[in-house]
User: Fold this.
Amino acid sequence: MHIGVKEMGGTDLVADAVEALKRGLPVLVFDSEGRERETDIFFLAEKVDHHSIRLLRRDAGGLICVSLHPKIADVLGLPFLRELLALYSSKLKTLYVKPLPYDERSAFSITINHVDTFTGISDRDRARTISRLGELCRMYWTRNISEDELCQKFLSEFRSPGHVFLLRAANNIVFERQGHTELAIALAMLGNLTPCVVLAEMLGDDGYSLSMKDAKEYARRHGYVFLEGKVIIEEFKRSFGGKTA
Assistant:
């Protein structure tokens, strides 16, 4: 049984979204009209299986990425991709200094595959990579393993480059940046869930991103939760009071 789309207050929508993520169900989040104007499908990384990846590939169609809380990214030593380009190739400066039309910077970090995968691109391979990363993050976030243990397990169990794109959320989450990377982490934190979330953009058949109207209709048709980024931002600000997350 799926949780249906509801046109109600922010607290109710966030609670429904959190419950869906806990159950391994997708949640649809539209960022804003003033930003990318895109809807992403979210799954909690630790709940992902090959059916989840197939849904992201088939019904979303965008790039399948994993958003990480900045503290986890720091423990793992994950750089921003633009920092790697700046460090190792001055010839490529004209590539990474160009401004984005919707933001000041990109959240992209490195790409990974789990060592138990083959090519890394199949639904089962990507599910293995993402779910195991989610499990490790959960173990660390619930204090069942230390920072050193998380880092050691990550280094021993994953290789790079790979087919799963990692994203670093901004240090102050949505207080600093309000992309899907940060919205995913904020939503997880609001539900006391592991702040490690897989996401992919929804694309349309017309060669553009799927419209919010069509994304809402998709959610209604399948019984999935749909909410706008502003709902998450408002709830996050109420819960964290403007403090650094």
User: Anything to note?
Assistant: Residues 109 and 244 are 22 Å apart (CA to CA). The domain at 10-222+231-240 is CATH 3.90.870.10 (DHBP synthase). The radius of gyration is 17 Å. The chain has one domain: 10-222+231-240.
